[in-house]
Amino acid sequence: MPRFPDHLTGDGPHNPFPGVRVLERRLGREIPHQLGSNEGLDMPHRALREHFGDAMAAHVYSYGDAEALGIRRRLAEQKGIPLEAMLVDAGADSLIALSLRAATAAGDVVVSTTGTYPTFAYFARGHGCRLVEVPYDEGPGRLAPDLDALAAAVREQGARLVYLANPDNPGGHLHRDADVLALRDALPDDCWLLLDEAYHDFREDADGEFGRRVLPGVIRLRTLSKAHGLAGLRVGYAIAEPETLAMMMKVRIHYAVSTLSQAAAEVVLDAPDEVTAHVAAVRERRERLAAHLRELGADVLPSATNFVGIRLASAELAGQLHGALLDEGKLIARPADPALGHVLRITAVEDALVPGRLATLEAALSER
What we know:
Largest sheet: 7 strands, mixed
Oligomer: single chain
Number of helices: 14
Helix content: 25-40%
Structural class: alpha/beta
Strand order of the largest sheet: 1-9-8-7-6-2-3
Strand content: 5-15%
Distance between the termini: 52 Å
């Protein structure tokens, strides 16, 4: 089992503000009169009510449930994940930062793939870690994090944590469950695996046994931004052993997820059929978009996400097309890292499939 930084292993720090909802659960009864809180509980909110309605105003008065029990209960029921093995926070990005704060200290070495989801590198450097990156495993029909190279770098550098996005962003590659487990086994006992599963819901086997597992030495991160459409409200959850989550709670912002975000997440989770239908529609659009681009001669990367990645002949061409489309008011994604400058990523929304929408890109592909 990987160890935690020394400053977190003693008694505390303790959350000084667990919140009214947590206190009510501890006491086993409601607290109808909040006379000791400093929120704006008697704010009339006339402007807010006029614009959004009374239901909105009801969500803004008090701090939210610091334990997000309503969300966790729904996820436990739907996903089969133990309630005590989940922690809800303000999106997967916030959970990346939280994981680094709980599992590493300034000066520790962390390892990732060059050009993978850049927020990890951003937070790792901001936390004072020394970031070591290894190249993608790239070949015909393949752009994937190199698991063997990641494990080797961990051993050579004495790293405390390794980051893997699975499915990968921006490539879209999905490693087999057995390969992820093999990576964990190849790591030293004192190294964490931070497994970013932001696109997990788009896997064909998303609800399989592996998706429910709580893995020792692993912090799994997921989000309600993609399949559940709540990116603007910032809701994500970590899956880890309760002892690990307890450490993360020591360094977590008390009320990171607002009452409105929690309420909206609960409503969406209470409508699982809509989420299922959305995921199915995204997969269908993804395959249509990929097939269309292949017909034009594009080097389309396999994807288990809600986007399609293509490789172009050069970073220069990718940059030109990205800029030309942006000038037309059409934003597709191009990774910021020069190592993946030749890759473009297109989200599988219906707008991307409108005839002529990507005409500039299509013309360039047809000329090859």
